[in-house]
Amino acid sequence: MTYLSAACNSSGLPSFAVSSSGKYEVSRLDIRGNVQVIPANHFAAFASIDILTLTQTATDTVPQQWDEKAFDGVDIRPIISVSGLGNLVPFPQALITLGKKGLTDLFIDRSSSVELTNSTFKEFPSLTRVQFNHTQITKLENGAFAGLENSLQYLYLQNVGLVEFPLTQLSILNKLSRLDLESNRIQNIPAKICTTLPKLVTLDVDNNPIQEIGSDAFLSNDVTVDLRNTTLASIDLSLFLFNDVGGGYVYLDNSVLLKSIRMSDKVISQYSGPYISIQNTALETIDPKLGDFLSRNNAVKINIQGSVHLQCGNLAWMAPYVLCSPQKIYTAGAWCADKPLDEYLKSVVPNPCG
Question: What's the mean pLDDT in 29-43?
Protein backbone atom coordinates (compact mmCIF):
# COMPACT_ATOMS: atom_id res chain seq x y z
CA MET A 1 0.00 0.00 0.00
CA THR A 2 1.36 3.42 -0.87
CA TYR A 3 -1.31 5.79 0.46
CA LEU A 4 -3.85 5.54 3.28
CA SER A 5 -6.32 8.22 4.33
CA ALA A 6 -8.49 8.10 7.43
CA ALA A 7 -11.37 10.48 8.24
CA CYS A 8 -11.95 10.86 11.96
CA ASN A 9 -15.01 12.14 13.80
CA SER A 10 -15.35 13.98 17.08
CA SER A 11 -15.47 10.77 19.11
CA GLY A 12 -11.79 10.15 18.54
CA LEU A 13 -9.46 8.37 16.21
CA PRO A 14 -11.01 5.18 14.80
CA SER A 15 -9.19 1.90 14.46
CA PHE A 16 -7.48 1.32 11.16
CA ALA A 17 -8.76 -1.52 9.01
CA VAL A 18 -5.50 -3.45 9.20
CA SER A 19 -4.48 -6.54 11.07
CA SER A 20 -2.82 -5.84 14.41
CA SER A 21 -0.44 -8.70 13.68
CA GLY A 22 0.59 -7.28 10.33
CA LYS A 23 3.37 -4.84 9.60
CA TYR A 24 2.46 -2.53 6.74
CA GLU A 25 4.68 -0.11 4.88
CA VAL A 26 2.99 3.01 3.52
CA SER A 27 4.50 5.98 1.72
CA ARG A 28 1.89 8.33 3.16
CA LEU A 29 -0.64 8.12 5.98
CA ASP A 30 -3.12 11.01 5.97
CA ILE A 31 -5.35 11.38 9.05
CA ARG A 32 -8.01 14.08 8.93
CA GLY A 33 -10.67 15.16 11.39
CA ASN A 34 -11.31 16.30 14.93
CA VAL A 35 -8.74 13.98 16.47
CA GLN A 36 -9.06 13.85 20.25
CA VAL A 37 -7.15 10.74 21.29
CA ILE A 38 -3.90 9.28 19.99
CA PRO A 39 -3.02 6.48 22.41
CA ALA A 40 0.27 4.69 22.92
CA ASN A 41 1.32 2.22 20.22
CA HIS A 42 -1.55 3.35 18.02
CA PHE A 43 0.52 3.01 14.83
CA ALA A 44 2.17 -0.29 15.76
CA ALA A 45 0.48 -2.07 12.83
CA PHE A 46 2.72 -0.10 10.47
CA ALA A 47 6.31 -1.09 9.93
CA SER A 48 7.11 2.26 8.36
CA ILE A 49 5.45 5.48 7.24
CA ASP A 50 7.32 7.80 4.91
CA ILE A 51 5.01 10.80 5.33
CA LEU A 52 2.53 11.15 8.20
CA THR A 53 -0.01 13.97 7.89
CA LEU A 54 -2.26 14.79 10.84
CA THR A 55 -4.85 17.45 9.99
CA GLN A 56 -7.43 18.91 12.33
CA THR A 57 -10.69 20.37 11.11
CA ALA A 58 -11.17 22.17 14.43
CA THR A 59 -8.24 24.57 14.63
CA ASP A 60 -8.75 25.49 18.28
CA THR A 61 -8.04 22.06 19.70
CA VAL A 62 -5.06 19.80 20.14
CA PRO A 63 -5.47 16.06 20.79
CA GLN A 64 -6.47 15.82 24.43
CA GLN A 65 -4.61 12.54 24.88
CA TRP A 66 -1.61 12.51 22.59
CA ASP A 67 0.51 9.86 24.24
CA GLU A 68 4.26 10.38 24.00
CA LYS A 69 4.50 6.72 22.97
CA ALA A 70 1.89 7.07 20.23
CA PHE A 71 4.49 6.34 17.58
CA ASP A 72 6.30 3.50 19.34
CA GLY A 73 6.81 0.48 17.13
CA VAL A 74 6.70 2.36 13.83
CA ASP A 75 9.46 3.90 11.76
CA ILE A 76 8.37 7.41 10.67
CA ARG A 77 11.11 7.71 8.15
CA PRO A 78 11.56 11.24 6.88
CA ILE A 79 8.53 13.48 7.26
CA ILE A 80 5.68 14.45 9.55
CA SER A 81 3.18 17.20 8.74
CA VAL A 82 0.65 18.48 11.27
CA SER A 83 -2.02 21.10 10.62
CA GLY A 84 -4.64 22.84 12.71
CA LEU A 85 -3.48 21.50 16.06
CA GLY A 86 -4.32 24.58 18.09
CA ASN A 87 -1.98 25.71 20.85
CA LEU A 88 1.29 23.75 20.71
CA VAL A 89 2.49 24.99 24.09
CA PRO A 90 4.22 23.07 25.48
CA PHE A 91 5.67 21.42 22.39
CA PRO A 92 4.03 17.95 22.11
CA GLN A 93 6.20 15.23 23.62
CA ALA A 94 5.04 12.85 20.88
CA LEU A 95 6.79 15.04 18.30
CA ILE A 96 9.93 15.16 20.42
CA THR A 97 9.84 11.37 20.55
CA LEU A 98 9.77 11.31 16.75
CA GLY A 99 12.73 13.67 16.73
CA LYS A 100 14.71 11.15 18.71
CA LYS A 101 13.79 8.50 16.11
CA GLY A 102 15.58 10.44 13.37
CA LEU A 103 12.86 12.67 11.90
CA THR A 104 14.27 14.76 9.04
CA ASP A 105 11.33 16.97 7.97
CA LEU A 106 8.83 18.71 10.26
CA PHE A 107 5.94 20.78 8.89
CA ILE A 108 3.54 22.59 11.24
CA ASP A 109 0.74 24.51 9.55
CA ARG A 110 -2.27 26.54 10.71
CA SER A 111 -1.92 25.85 14.38
CA SER A 112 -2.76 28.74 16.68
CA SER A 113 0.57 29.24 18.46
CA VAL A 114 3.91 27.72 19.35
CA GLU A 115 6.83 28.66 21.57
CA LEU A 116 10.38 27.91 20.40
CA THR A 117 12.59 27.73 23.45
CA ASN A 118 16.18 26.67 24.12
CA SER A 119 15.03 23.08 24.49
CA THR A 120 12.45 22.69 21.68
CA PHE A 121 14.79 21.04 19.17
CA LYS A 122 17.38 19.54 21.52
CA GLU A 123 16.10 16.04 20.70
CA PHE A 124 15.93 16.46 16.90
CA PRO A 125 19.48 15.58 15.78
CA SER A 126 18.53 14.71 12.18
CA LEU A 127 16.19 17.55 11.18
CA THR A 128 17.15 19.09 7.84
CA ARG A 129 13.90 20.94 7.11
CA VAL A 130 11.55 22.82 9.45
CA GLN A 131 8.48 24.73 8.34
CA PHE A 132 6.03 26.77 10.42
CA ASN A 133 3.24 28.32 8.37
CA HIS A 134 0.27 30.40 9.59
CA THR A 135 1.23 29.55 13.16
CA GLN A 136 2.05 32.39 15.55
CA ILE A 137 5.45 32.05 17.18
CA THR A 138 4.74 33.67 20.54
CA LYS A 139 8.24 33.07 21.92
CA LEU A 140 11.53 32.79 20.01
CA GLU A 141 14.39 32.46 22.46
CA ASN A 142 17.98 33.16 21.43
CA GLY A 143 18.73 29.44 21.56
CA ALA A 144 15.52 28.41 19.83
CA PHE A 145 17.35 26.29 17.24
CA ALA A 146 19.85 24.69 19.60
CA GLY A 147 20.34 21.08 18.59
CA LEU A 148 20.05 21.86 14.87
CA GLU A 149 23.45 23.54 14.47
CA ASN A 150 24.87 21.01 12.02
CA SER A 151 21.74 19.50 10.47
CA LEU A 152 19.18 22.17 9.54
CA GLN A 153 19.43 23.28 5.89
CA TYR A 154 15.94 24.64 5.12
CA LEU A 155 13.94 26.85 7.46
CA TYR A 156 10.52 28.30 6.62
CA LEU A 157 8.92 30.73 9.07
CA GLN A 158 6.00 31.94 6.96
CA ASN A 159 3.26 34.14 8.38
CA VAL A 160 4.28 33.50 11.97
CA GLY A 161 4.16 37.08 13.28
CA LEU A 162 7.86 37.98 13.21
CA VAL A 163 8.54 41.71 13.58
CA GLU A 164 12.34 41.49 13.54
CA PHE A 165 14.80 39.52 11.44
CA PRO A 166 15.86 36.68 13.79
CA LEU A 167 19.58 36.76 12.96
CA THR A 168 20.72 36.15 16.54
CA GLN A 169 18.62 33.00 16.81
CA LEU A 170 19.78 31.79 13.38
CA SER A 171 23.47 32.47 13.87
CA ILE A 172 24.21 28.96 15.19
CA LEU A 173 22.88 27.24 12.04
CA ASN A 174 26.08 26.31 10.25
CA LYS A 175 24.41 24.57 7.29
CA LEU A 176 21.37 26.76 6.66
CA SER A 177 21.04 27.28 2.89
CA ARG A 178 17.43 28.43 2.48
CA LEU A 179 15.66 30.89 4.76
CA ASP A 180 12.03 31.80 4.03
CA LEU A 181 10.49 34.57 6.14
CA GLU A 182 7.59 35.35 3.81
CA SER A 183 4.52 37.25 5.03
CA ASN A 184 5.73 38.58 8.35
CA ARG A 185 6.11 42.16 9.63
CA ILE A 186 9.89 42.55 9.30
CA GLN A 187 11.04 46.08 8.44
CA ASN A 188 14.84 45.79 8.43
CA ILE A 189 17.30 43.30 6.95
CA PRO A 190 20.40 43.42 9.14
CA ALA A 191 23.99 43.75 8.01
CA LYS A 192 26.31 40.77 7.63
CA ILE A 193 23.63 38.13 7.06
CA CYS A 194 25.91 36.15 4.78
CA THR A 195 28.94 36.28 7.02
CA THR A 196 26.73 35.09 9.88
CA LEU A 197 25.09 32.38 7.71
CA PRO A 198 27.96 31.33 5.41
CA LYS A 199 26.01 28.57 3.60
CA LEU A 200 22.98 30.71 2.77
CA VAL A 201 22.03 30.70 -0.93
CA THR A 202 18.34 31.76 -0.84
CA LEU A 203 16.63 34.40 1.28
CA ASP A 204 12.89 35.02 0.85
CA VAL A 205 11.36 38.06 2.57
CA ASP A 206 8.46 38.42 0.14
CA ASN A 207 5.47 40.33 1.52
CA ASN A 208 7.23 42.06 4.40
CA PRO A 209 7.20 45.84 5.00
CA ILE A 210 10.95 46.06 4.36
CA GLN A 211 12.26 49.61 4.60
CA GLU A 212 16.01 49.18 5.11
CA ILE A 213 18.75 46.72 4.12
CA GLY A 214 22.06 46.61 5.98
CA SER A 215 24.96 47.82 3.87
CA ASP A 216 26.97 44.59 4.16
CA ALA A 217 24.02 42.19 4.28
CA PHE A 218 25.11 40.14 1.25
CA LEU A 219 28.82 40.79 1.28
CA SER A 220 30.20 37.28 1.02
CA ASN A 221 27.65 34.93 -0.56
CA ASP A 222 26.17 34.33 -4.00
CA VAL A 223 22.58 34.68 -2.72
CA THR A 224 19.20 34.77 -4.43
CA VAL A 225 17.08 37.38 -2.63
CA ASP A 226 13.30 37.62 -2.93
CA LEU A 227 12.14 41.14 -2.03
CA ARG A 228 8.81 41.05 -3.85
CA ASN A 229 5.84 42.89 -2.37
CA THR A 230 7.92 44.95 0.04
CA THR A 231 7.63 48.64 0.95
CA LEU A 232 11.08 49.72 -0.22
CA ALA A 233 11.00 53.19 -1.79
CA SER A 234 14.63 53.15 -2.93
CA ILE A 235 17.31 50.50 -3.23
CA ASP A 236 21.05 50.42 -3.83
CA LEU A 237 21.64 47.58 -6.29
CA SER A 238 25.30 47.47 -5.33
CA LEU A 239 24.15 45.68 -2.16
CA PHE A 240 23.88 42.56 -4.32
CA LEU A 241 26.95 43.10 -6.52
CA PHE A 242 29.88 42.53 -4.20
CA ASN A 243 30.67 38.97 -5.05
CA ASP A 244 33.09 37.91 -7.77
CA VAL A 245 32.23 34.20 -7.62
CA GLY A 246 28.88 34.38 -9.40
CA GLY A 247 25.51 35.94 -9.04
CA GLY A 248 22.20 35.09 -7.51
CA TYR A 249 18.82 36.41 -8.54
CA VAL A 250 17.25 39.52 -7.06
CA TYR A 251 13.46 39.92 -7.19
CA LEU A 252 11.85 43.30 -6.43
CA ASP A 253 8.61 42.69 -8.33
CA ASN A 254 5.36 44.26 -7.12
CA SER A 255 7.12 46.53 -4.63
CA VAL A 256 4.68 49.25 -5.52
CA LEU A 257 6.43 52.03 -3.56
CA LEU A 258 9.80 51.51 -5.23
CA LYS A 259 10.74 54.69 -7.12
CA SER A 260 14.52 54.86 -7.18
CA ILE A 261 17.46 52.61 -8.03
CA ARG A 262 20.86 53.74 -6.81
CA MET A 263 24.41 52.47 -7.35
CA SER A 264 27.27 53.14 -4.95
CA ASP A 265 30.94 53.05 -5.93
CA LYS A 266 31.75 49.95 -3.93
CA VAL A 267 30.81 47.28 -6.48
CA ILE A 268 33.50 45.06 -7.91
CA SER A 269 34.71 45.66 -11.45
CA GLN A 270 33.92 42.17 -12.76
CA TYR A 271 30.87 40.13 -11.94
CA SER A 272 29.16 37.12 -13.50
CA GLY A 273 25.58 37.85 -12.47
CA PRO A 274 22.86 38.27 -11.40
CA TYR A 275 19.44 38.52 -12.99
CA ILE A 276 17.53 41.41 -11.41
CA SER A 277 13.75 41.64 -11.76
CA ILE A 278 12.00 44.94 -10.94
CA GLN A 279 8.60 44.40 -12.54
CA ASN A 280 5.39 46.27 -11.67
CA THR A 281 6.86 49.00 -9.49
CA ALA A 282 6.57 52.80 -9.38
CA LEU A 283 10.13 53.21 -10.68
CA GLU A 284 10.99 56.79 -11.65
CA THR A 285 14.79 57.11 -11.54
CA ILE A 286 17.73 54.82 -12.28
CA ASP A 287 21.28 55.79 -11.40
CA PRO A 288 23.38 56.21 -14.59
CA LYS A 289 26.25 54.46 -12.79
CA LEU A 290 24.36 51.24 -13.48
CA GLY A 291 25.38 51.73 -17.12
CA ASP A 292 29.07 51.76 -16.16
CA PHE A 293 28.57 48.51 -14.32
CA LEU A 294 26.68 46.89 -17.22
CA SER A 295 29.43 47.86 -19.64
CA ARG A 296 31.90 45.78 -17.63
CA ASN A 297 29.69 42.78 -16.93
CA ASN A 298 28.12 40.94 -19.82
CA ALA A 299 26.20 38.41 -17.72
CA VAL A 300 24.00 40.86 -15.82
CA LYS A 301 20.37 41.04 -16.96
CA ILE A 302 17.84 43.52 -15.59
CA ASN A 303 14.08 43.36 -16.08
CA ILE A 304 12.16 46.60 -15.38
CA GLN A 305 8.97 45.67 -17.21
CA GLY A 306 5.49 46.80 -16.24
CA SER A 307 4.00 49.91 -14.65
CA VAL A 308 7.23 51.90 -14.80
CA HIS A 309 7.06 55.65 -15.53
CA LEU A 310 10.59 56.94 -15.66
CA GLN A 311 11.65 60.54 -15.46
CA CYS A 312 13.14 61.23 -18.89
CA GLY A 313 16.19 63.22 -17.83
CA ASN A 314 19.50 61.44 -18.36
CA LEU A 315 18.20 58.13 -19.72
CA ALA A 316 20.29 58.12 -22.88
CA TRP A 317 22.86 55.85 -21.21
CA MET A 318 20.25 53.05 -21.28
CA ALA A 319 19.94 52.97 -25.08
CA PRO A 320 22.63 50.38 -25.94
CA TYR A 321 21.44 48.07 -23.15
CA VAL A 322 17.78 48.31 -24.21
CA LEU A 323 18.08 48.47 -28.01
CA CYS A 324 21.21 46.48 -28.88
CA SER A 325 22.30 42.87 -28.78
CA PRO A 326 22.94 41.31 -26.36
CA GLN A 327 20.04 43.02 -24.63
CA LYS A 328 20.75 43.62 -20.94
CA ILE A 329 17.72 45.67 -19.86
CA TYR A 330 14.18 44.51 -20.66
CA THR A 331 11.67 47.36 -20.64
CA ALA A 332 8.24 46.26 -21.92
CA GLY A 333 5.69 48.36 -20.06
CA ALA A 334 8.26 51.00 -19.08
CA TRP A 335 7.36 54.51 -20.23
CA CYS A 336 8.91 57.95 -20.51
CA ALA A 337 7.28 61.15 -21.80
CA ASP A 338 4.13 59.22 -22.70
CA LYS A 339 6.10 56.88 -24.94
CA PRO A 340 7.32 53.33 -24.46
CA LEU A 341 10.88 53.62 -23.20
CA ASP A 342 12.41 51.90 -26.21
CA GLU A 343 10.69 54.35 -28.57
CA TYR A 344 11.86 57.31 -26.49
CA LEU A 345 15.44 56.04 -26.54
CA LYS A 346 15.36 55.61 -30.33
CA SER A 347 14.23 59.22 -30.65
CA VAL A 348 17.06 60.66 -28.51
CA VAL A 349 19.96 58.34 -29.39
CA PRO A 350 20.28 58.14 -33.20
CA ASN A 351 22.85 55.34 -33.40
CA PRO A 352 22.80 53.47 -30.07
CA CYS A 353 24.50 50.31 -31.33
CA GLY A 354 27.44 52.05 -32.96
Answer: 70
